[in-house]
Amino acid sequence: MDVRVTGRGPSEPFLGARDLFATEYDLDLPVVVKIRENPDERTMAGHYDDRHELIVSRRAATSAMARELALHEFAHMARYEEAHPSHRQSTEEALFLALAGRSVERRKLSHCYQIANHMKDIYADDITLDIGPTEKLVAFMESSLARALADSPPSAPGGWQRRTDAADPEITAVNAAFALALLERHGAIEDGHRLYDLAAAAAADAPDVSLSRFKQHFRSLGADPDESEYRKALVDVTREYAVGRERAAD
Hints:
Layout: E1 3-6, H1 12-21, E2 31-36, E3 43-47, E4 52-57, H2 58-61, H3 66-81, H4 85-88, H5 91-99, H6 106-131, H7 135-151, H8 169-185, H9 194-205, H10 211-219, H11 227-243, H12 245-248
Parallel strand pairs: 1-2, 2-4
Antiparallel strand pairs: 3-4
Helix pairs in contact: 1-3, 3-6, 5-11, 6-8, 6-11, 7-8, 7-9, 8-9, 8-10
């Protein structure tokens, strides 16, 4: 497995992730890691005929999660190379099928793309959690959910204005369901963990989102779906989030 790191930043996390990944998996194409000072996103992966590219911010490359982040991205590349439906299915096509003829708020449409990414992440992390330690991931998810809850706007007479996607209570509840589903799927979390309390708080802030149902959506994804099965799963979860369970069944 060929990994080349360019830019101002450490190569060790990416080479360490390569060595760990290569104990169980491999990539046919080489990986070019480009460390940038201020990319548009913290990480951005691209797939080409002759290589995979991973653009990473220098802040992410020097963080305590750098190796785990690289391992996660290598897993996405593996899913892409094996033509797994989660990584080859058009998100736009699935959203069109799910939402055709329905009026959807722009913020909810944006969240639907995030939910589709969660489904991709489930399949990538089926690989990463198979080969890597889980303690850092559990702690990362706990701190991320706690931060999102702290950023949520307070209740106020006459309602409140959502400030950012991260602070939106509805997508925060879905994110909590994703975190629990992923960790439970791999037996990486114990009963009574603080993450359950945080998830319950997120659910209480978003009464129109069923934490248990979204957790079941993510947790029950089949390991090896065909294209039709995966498309249906993505359409179902998208429709439930965007228009509600009862209206989605109409």
